[in-house]
Design brief:
Blueprint lengths: L1 H10 L7 H13 E4 L3 E4 L6 H11 L4 E5 L2 E5 L3 H7 L3 E4 L2 E4 L11 H15 E7 L5 E10 L2 H13 L5 E5 L2 E6 L2 H10 L3 H52 L6 H12 L5 H7 L6 H19 L3
Antiparallel strand pairs: 1-2, 2-4, 3-4, 5-6, 7-8, 8-10, 9-10
Helix pairs in contact: 2-5, 7-8, 8-11, 9-11
């Protein structure tokens, strides 16, 4: 699911539209490792290289892009211009001043806001979709991991504006935005255009609910069965004790018929005994008679 999700997101990002700047801004702001007037180093995931470089070259053709162990090395005369246009950083008398790329100007339209969120997710986002060996879903979560606390707050606010409510927690030196709510995860997938994944997740949720419902019904059945068996065992023991020590005649006639019926059908539930009883009787009436036999047994044994 995750690999397909990355591919689907990348395919949905235009290399020429107004959203391209939002994509560039998201990637650079969250993966910038070093910035100077002459060079910038990005540590973005390698699967983003082709899309990122294509868009960057479309808008800033004179920039040089090199691949190294440090990451993407970007340099050229328009580097400073590009950083300013994307609201990443400004150079004032040669001094670097970082900006806030998640602003109203950059993200004026809905499509740009969503594209910006896509870029952030591709760099620092993850979706956990956990299954055990039997294929039963254990849980879902979406999260973003940031080193920059301010950027994390801005992205959280952006998500809330888009109708995606994320929680935040500090994890080591990072700040994590997350949600373990399957409904939020589905909404997030729909918002970023990952319809196949959203549909797959919804199907999984339906299947999990069906399994849980079946398990609840099975557990209820087992509990009722155990209750019936335990009651039957107690009744048979009481009747055996009375017959062996005092004789069946010790019981009044109406109780003798119930005792014999239970002895002959030790595993039958009350509903079956009710049908076998020689005269019309309610389940409550049948239970009353069996409870009375138990009470006589306990009195004879001195059990309080």
């Amino acid at each position: 699911m995750i690999k397909n999700l990355q591919n689907d997101i990348l395919q949905g990002i235009s290399t020429t539209s107004c959203c391209s700047n939002a994509f560039l801004s998201a990637i650079i702001s969250v993966t910038k490792d070093e910035i100077s007037q002459n060079q910038m180093i990005l540590t973005c995931p390698t699967f983003l290289y082709d899309k990122f470089c294509t868009i960057l070259k479309n808008f800033y053709p004179d920039l040089s892009i090199r691949f190294s162990k440090l990451g993407l090395l970007i340099s050229g005369k328009s580097l400073v211009e590009m950083l300013g246009e994307l609201d990443i950083a400004y150079f004032n008398n040669g001094q670097l001043e970082l900006s806030n790329p998640c602003n109203e100007t950059m993200l004026a339209s809905e499509c740009c806001r969503i594209t910006y969120l896509k870029g952030m997710f591709l760099c620092v986002g993850k979706i956990y979709y956990n299954n055990d060996t039997s294929g039963k879903t254990q849980g879902y979560s979406v999260e973003f991991v940031f080193k920059d606390y301010q950027l994390a707050d801005d992205v959280k606010a952006l998500c809330k504006f888009l109708g995606i409510n994320l929680k935040s927690v500090k994890r080591g030196n990072n700040i994590v935005l997350y949600s373990k709510d399957s409904g939020v995860l589905v909404e997030f997938l729909v918002k970023i255009g990952a319809m196949n994944e959203a549909f797959e997740l919804q199907n999984s949720l339906v299947m999990r609910e069906m399994r849980n419902d079946a398990n609840r019904k099975g557990n209820c059945f087992d509990a009722n069965l155990n209750k019936t068996i335990n009651a039957s065992v107690e009744q048979v023991l009481a009747i055996d004790y009375i017959i062996n020590h005092y004789g069946l005649e010790y019981l009044e006639l109406s109780l003798q018929a119930v005792a014999l019926l239970r002895i002959a059908n030790p595993e039958a539930p009350l509903s079956e005994l009710q049908k076998l009883y020689p005269q019309p009787i309610t389940r409550a009436g049948l239970k009353y008679k069996l409870d009375k036999i138990i009470a006589i047994y306990k009195d004879l044994k001195g059990i309080s």
